[in-house]
Write a structure and sequence with these properties.
With 193 residues, the chain is of the alpha+beta class. The chain has one domain: Lysozyme. The protein contains 8 helices and 6 strands; from the N terminus they run H-E-E-H-E-E-H-H-H-H-H-E-E-H. Helix 3 packs across helix 4, helix 4 packs antiparallel against helix 8 and helix 7 runs antiparallel to helix 8. InterPro entries: Bacteriophage_GH24, Endolysin_T4_type, Glyco_hydro_24, Lysozyme-like_dom_sf, Lysozyme_dom_sf.
Length: 193
């Protein structure tokens, strides 16, 4: 029997190894400084948080249209997507930039509360903001603040963790992939680090 491989699929674990310098995906310590070829950055998320995002998003070297219709590649990257395959280093660099943007969003809400999140809470909320985007994380369709955002700004992180389980719909339909992702985010959010 001949096995056919889809060459556009890439390994999330390999990209995490590039980002973390080979740290275990089970580590709950902050990734810290990231150096990928000429790119340099810093991440507060842990490798365990990276695994939640990466495994939920999947990894592709070739561009495709995501369920929202956006041209996407790598691990959920929708920015400056070329029409050709990209290297794992490019995927890792784009991913770090996108995660950093989600981290800034979460850190901003956290700073309003004056209460530092646990590593698990930060990982979970960063995964959530990476998935929804910062504007949707903060605001409902009617412009009011979301429950998760309000609870984070108030420093009520356990209540914000509970809000994660509500965000399993897309286009009015409950999606198995979102149910699984929110379950993993909730579990990480409530872990004691």
């Amino acid at each position: 029997m001949k096995i056919r491989l889809n060459k556009s699929v890439c390994s999330v674990a390999a990209v995490i190894a590039i980002v973390t310098g080979g740290a275990s995906i089970h580590s709950t310590e902050s990734v810290g400084k990231v150096q990928i070829e000429a790119f340099s950055g810093e991440l507060r998320i842990s490798p365990a948080g990276l695994a939640i995002i990466g495994n939920a998003e999947g990894c592709r070297t070739h561009p495709y249209h995501c369920p929202a219709g956006l041209l996407t590649n790598g691990i959920g990257n929708t920015h400056d997507v070329p029409k050709t395959d990209v290297s794992l280093e490019r995927i890792a660099t784009d991913w770090v930039k996108n995660i950093h943007a989600a981290e800034l969003c979460i850190s901003s809400a956290e700073s309003v509360s004056g209460v530092r999140m646990t590593p698990g809470q930060f990982d979970a909320f960063t995964s959530f903001a990476f998935n929804t985007g910062c504007p949707r994380f903060m605001r409902n369709h009617n412009g009011s603040a979301t429950g998760i955002y309000s609870n984070i700004m108030a420093g009520n992180y356990p209540a914000a963790c509970n809000e994660l389980k509500r965000w399993v719909y897309a286009g009015g339909k409950k999606l198995p992939g979102l149910i699984d992702r929110r379950g993993r985010e909730y579990a990480r959010c409530t872990e004691v680090d």
